């Protein structure tokens, strides 16, 4: 019985996250009430507060369901001394692009996070989480660039933190631009060329 109850609770949580994705995409985050999400999920409003403290907590859980695997992949870079950190970095960034371009749920969540959220009132907590993820990503990129430069015995042509911020901004900018008009260009191929050109400009030619 206890196992069944746990499975039911997990199913309800996923129903709420699914409903939140669709409601946020349709109405925007600030204009979507928790009651809207509960009704769309077919549960009571109380069920939301059983699983989530507020809208920000729900939003962050929705994001983590999609982004945690990507963040974890980025954090794994450099753990295998036999692999080139530059190849791992490029592969991780391009895998994220492929998922955004090919997976409808991933695309919808990134579109909500990029185009349909306002960082005001209770959603300031969402901004804090977003900034933390950004800082973690930049830090990992910096570490990978430094290790790649060390293994190649070449100096980076930009200060490491600046180089990492630039690459992060390039990736985020490509995603944002593509989400505005997916028909304008092919995300993965353009990203591969742009990232490659950026890394070459830093003095990190692929092996």
How would you sum up this structure, described in words?
The chain is an all-alpha fold and 207 residues long. It folds into 2 domains: 1-52, Homeodomain-like (Arc Repressor Mutant, subunit A), CATH 1.10.10; 55-201, Tetracycline Repressor, domain 2 (Orthogonal Bundle). It has 9 helices and no strands. It has helices at 2-27, 34-41, 45-51, 55-75, 85-102, 104-115, 124-152, 160-180, 187-201. Helix 7 crosses helix 8 (160-180).
What is the gist of this entry?
The protein is mainly alpha-helical. Helix content is 76%, strand content 0%.
Estimate nothing, just give the exact number of structural domains. 2
CATH topology assignment of the largest domain: Tetracycline Repressor, domain 2
Residue share in helix: over 70%
| Backbone structural class | mainly alpha
Highest-level CATH class of the largest domain: Mainly Alpha
Rounded to the nearest angstrom, the distance between the terminal CA atoms is: 57 Å
Unreliable stretches covering 5 or more consecutive residues? none
Q: What is the CATH homology-level superfamily of the largest domain?
A: Tetracycline Repressor, domain 2
**Total count of strands:** 0
Architecture (CATH level 2) name of the largest domain: Orthogonal Bundle
Shape: elongated
Proportion of residues in β-strands: under 5%
Total helices: the number is 9
N-to-C SSE string, H for helix and E for strand:
HHHHHHHHH
- Computed Rg: 19 Å
Mean pLDDT: 91
Largest sheet: none
